[in-house]
Predict the structure.
Amino acid sequence: MTESFFKDDAERQAHGEIPELEAPAPDSAAEAERGFISDEGRMAAIMAYIPFLCFIPLLSMKDNAEARFHARQGVLLFLVEVVAALFLIDTVSDLVFKGILLIAAGLSVAGIIFAFQGRSYKLPIVGDLAQKSKL
């Protein structure tokens, strides 16, 4: 028989055993808090990714770190979905894009003026993003 990287792998193949799928019981309350020991925590984490229901685990499961982790992600995804839904409305998306274009044009003009004067001025928002980027 060929050697296996895992010690018990060769024995399991020889005997045809099926590995257990149940997770071992946690050794402490801290381990229980990190994982989904209860079905309530698991359901709260699932609910976190359903729009409008994402606030329930965030507010009701304050003691479960894993459920709060998923709830925070779910709330951010919900906000992205709301913004995306707003862009489906033509007048709202036109106003937002025109506003962004106007601000970008204004910042470009300000950059040209500062460059012409020989001054190094960090533009708002754009300057911070440019400084953090690895361009």
